Amino acid sequence: MNGMAQPDNASYYATYTTVLTVILVGVAFAAAAFGANRLLRPTRPTREKLLTYESGVDPVGEGWAQTHVRYYVFAYLYVVFAVDAIYLFPWATVFAAPGFGWVTLVEMFVFLGFIAVGLLYAWRKGVLTWT
Amino acid sequence: MSTVRVLFVLLGAVAVGSALLVVTTRQIVHAALWLVVTLGALAGCFLLLTAEFVAWVQVLIYVGAVVVLLLFALMLTRAPTRPDPAARTPNAWFAAVVAAAVAGVLVTTLVAGFSGAVIDLDRAEIGGARVTGGAVFSTWVLPFEVLSVLLLAALVGAIVLSRRDVPNRPRDAEAARDTEPARDADDRERSSS
Fold first, then answer.
1. Cα torsion for A61, A64, A69, A73, to the nearest 10°?
2. Total count of domains within chain A
């Protein structure tokens, strides 16, 4: 492990207090804007005004729809590469550190190789071509 | 550090409450969205326990990718995505028993393994990318490589299940005609009914 235990984690929590403050200010800003909008605007709803806007045409049917199963592969490819990418961050911070070196480099390329086989399979099966 | 403790308890309560809503809500899409709240609250808990990297992985992978996958899966099923009284199944009690049993096993494992463990948050090492990388690439290399095989297997499985050049079910042929899911509203209604 790199680095010994920190004597005090106050700076860690202070950093995330800033993050929390930014999030709270953002939520408050949106809430204030929409709240002021609601208070100031005139409200005269009619049936037509309350319809969902769909390019100027009255909507037909329901919003819920079944999609084609092939889109699932795109969602799944996204998950695979998200998991893949997330391991690159810890790897990038340590592979040049003393005690890691070439072995760690090879380990990551074995990992990427397995993923690449999956991508090759997807490509050969024509999943990646847009039809 | 009492602020950390209070926030941890609050986030834990949010996680448990939204998890209950996940399993009790009638609208199956709302269940997936409540899952976002649950996983986000868990990420906050990780962050408070100084597991910084794990917390952001939770946000990126679980909130970002896994929930999207779940929503895609919901949109593919014939199960109605609109509220449905039939979503209440008579097997609910059996599911509750299984859930309680799984929870029992998990709690027993945690208590047996970590009952005396205490994290001193003032002095704990911040679990950033460097610390996690050190652990993964020195001690846990084999699980890391096995994970790539798991991802490969799941990817190949997803492709095999969703291939459209083998219309072995009549439903596939019917769905294949509907090349663009949002082509027009009539098609949408027909395919959802």
1. 140
2. 1
